[in-house]
Amino acid sequence: MSVPVQFLTVRDQDGLVAIGRDDLVRYAGPAQIVASALCLRLFDRAFRDLSPDKPPHRDDIRVLVAFPGDGILDCVEMITRARTRGRLTIDVGAGPAEAPPALVGRFYFEIAIAGRRHGYRLADGFFTPAFVELVKRHQDGGGTPAEREEYQRAKHDLIGRLLGAADEALFVACEI
Questions:
Q1: Is residue 144 included in any domain, yes or no?
Q2: How much is the CA Rg of the chain, to the nearest whole Å?
Q3: Phi, psi torsion values for 152, nearest 5 degrees
Q4: pLDDT, tens digit, for every residue of 24-49?
Q5: Residue 172 forms beta bridges with which residues?
Q6: Residue 23, Cα to own-chain centre: how many angstroms?
Q7: CATH number at residue 36
Q8: Residue 84: left if φ>0, alpha if ψ -120 to 50, beta else—which one?
Q9: Which domain holds residue 25?
Q10: Is there a smaller number of Cβ atoms within 10 Å at the N or the C end of the chain?
Q11: What is the pLDDT of residues 47-83, one digit of tens each?
């Protein structure tokens, strides 16, 4: 099992920027705590795969997402600035058919850094049909207090599994 990632480090024009999960939650909002955990793990893996010797420069990072959820897009933006700088592609049909389905699209991402590109599909079993149903019913704040509490417990359980999973158990990666 890998050591849990605490921060991502990227280079910017004036130096290094360290971004933790708390920063992602503050940027995307507390409703996006699962997206923050997923993106932290995704970019940690991609940075180690594609820029193992030094933190990548934000301007060298290109991203494709097949699941354009608000939290994912916000976290991608905070880490890479790809959305505002024209280096983000949204294609809900991208990726292999075996990538787990999301509310829109699927859990598949491509990260490119300075000419190298890898695809990452989320492993099966993280976003279960039962969890997706909870998202549909409660992400917008709907439901009774007891239902919203159940949803929060489910989100925190999923975050624990996302942050605690070994790399090879979380993403299936391929060089493109």
A1: yes
A2: 16
A3: -60, -40
A4: 999 999 999 999 999 999 999 999 99
A5: 121
A6: 14
A7: 3.30.1330.130
A8: alpha
A9: 7-175
A10: N
A11: 999 999 999 999 999 999 999 999 999 999 999 999 9
Closest to 154 measured CA to CA, from 175, 127, 174: 127
Mean pLDDT in residue range 162-176: 92
The two three-digit tokens of residue 50, written as one number: 């594609």
How remote is the C-alpha of 93 from its chain's centroid? 17
Sign of CA dihedral 24, 92, 173, 158: positive
- The count of residues in the chain is 176
Total domains in the fold of the chain: 1
8, 13, 104, 114, 121 from 70: Cα distances, Å? 20, 27, 11, 26, 18
Cβ neighbour number for residue 63 with a 10 Å cutoff: 24
Assess if residue 2 is contained within a domain.
Answer: no
| Alpha helices for the chain (secondary structure H) | 21-28, 33-50, 70-80, 129-138, 145-164, 167-170
- pLDDT, position 1: 46
What are 30's two structure tokens?
Answer: 């507390």
69 occurs within a structural domain:
yes
Residue 1 resides in a domain: no
| Rounded distance between C-alpha atoms, residue 122 and residue 168, angstroms | 10
What are the phi and psi torsion angles at 14 (to 5°)? Answer: -110, 10
